[in-house]
Write a structure and sequence with these properties.
Blueprint lengths: L2 E2 H4 L15 H17 L2 H8 L3 H15 L4 E4 L2 E4 L1 H21 L3 E4 L2 E7 L5 E7 L2 H5 L3 H13 L15 E5 L6 E5 L4 H6 L1 H6 L11 H18 L2 E10 L8 E13 L5 E9 L27
Antiparallel strand pairs: 1-2, 2-3, 4-5, 5-6, 6-9, 7-8, 7-11, 9-10, 10-11
């Protein structure tokens, strides 16, 4: 029989002075306990990962449950499982933790209502990503992005629709998986192919995003927009300025591009994330110098003939 966690593992029963709002550091730790336990479903493993104590993790979970008014876990034969409330709360908790870490380091901000992510390393490597208004597609001078948005509308997001056929060579397609976003298709005329070459591009099919050139940091920075489009089944435009090698193990090269993410569907109606990418001709990220564009290789562009 399922039991609420606090029913079989009581925590400190000494009356506590109620607080109207938990201190930010405490809330962060409470959410970290929840996310870690949800990932492991094993209290001992969660405690080890957090270098914490069993009592602390249990207390954090009970405080969250009391505040939220619903159990997050049930326990049967000492095995943890997420309740419906826990399953619904987990994705946002992970998002808040990830964005909180970036925010604390000054790497994420909202500017004019648009999310900006910035990451710089001492060796000079940087990654700047800023969400842009969709109107920039029409004002930004990219016929390929304009055609991609029109094709998405006409096809209603159906990847195999005849209305989207002409755009397939110019886009990348991703599928969500337990290991993150997996690339399932690379267009032979896409910006990705122009940057890395066709042989390298083809070898990327089936690889998790975190294994692409750029590493785990690249995956983390891309995750927020991908998840938003998956949740809303909509479209999103971002501009990215960074340095990425043009071959495995190569020297990072300056790169600036606009990326249109579109919610799509495979023939079996499962979610497909479609990405259309084109070279930036202007930089619309505050604090990033447009001279960056002059350092980009001249052949890093999409030749659109649609």
């Amino acid at each position: 029989m399922n039991q609420h966690m606090s029913d079989i593992e009581p925590v400190n029963t000494v009356p506590q002075t109620p607080q109207k709002e938990p201190a930010p550091a405490l809330l962060f730790e409470m959410m970290r306990s929840f996310v870690t336990l949800a990932s492991t479903l094993n209290l001992s493993h969660a405690v080890a990962q957090m270098t914490s104590t069993r009592q602390t993790v249990r207390r954090h979970i009970q405080q969250l449950e009391d505040t939220m008014g619903a159990p997050l876990f049930s326990i049967e034969n000492r095995r943890y499982s997420l309740t419906k409330a826990g399953e619904e709360a987990l994705p946002e908790a992970r998002d808040i933790l990830d964005r909180g870490k970036l925010w604390l380091g000054g790497k994420t901000r909202h500017i004019d209502g648009m999310l900006r992510l910035s990451y710089e390393e001492p060796n000079g490597w940087c990654f700047h990503q800023k969400q842009q208004p969709l109107s920039l597609i029409w004002d930004g001078g990219s016929p390929m992005l304009q055609a991609a948005l029109e094709a998405w509308t006409q096809s209603r997001g159906e990847l195999e629709s005849e209305a989207f056929r002409a755009m397939r060579p110019y886009v990348l397609v991703y599928r969500d998986s337990p290991n993150g976003w997996i690339c399932t298709e690379v267009g032979e005329k896409s910006f990705y192919t122009q940057w890395w070459g066709w042989s390298n591009a083809r070898s990327s099919i089936g690889r998790p995003l975190k294994l692409f050139p750029g590493g785990p940091e690249f995956e983390n920075m891309l995750n927020f927009p991908f998840r938003e489009v998956e949740a809303t089944y909509g479209v999103r435009l971002d501009e990215v300025v960074t340095q990425i090698p043009r071959e495995e193990g190569g020297h990072p090269v300056p790169l600036a591009y606009k990326r249109l993410l579109m919610a799509g569907r495979y023939p079996d109606k499962s979610f497909a994330l479609i990405a259309a990418v084109d070279r930036s001709t202007t930089v619309n990220i505050e604090g990033v110098d447009e001279t960056f564009l002059q350092e980009m290789p001249l052949d890093a562009k999409v030749t659109f003939t649609g």
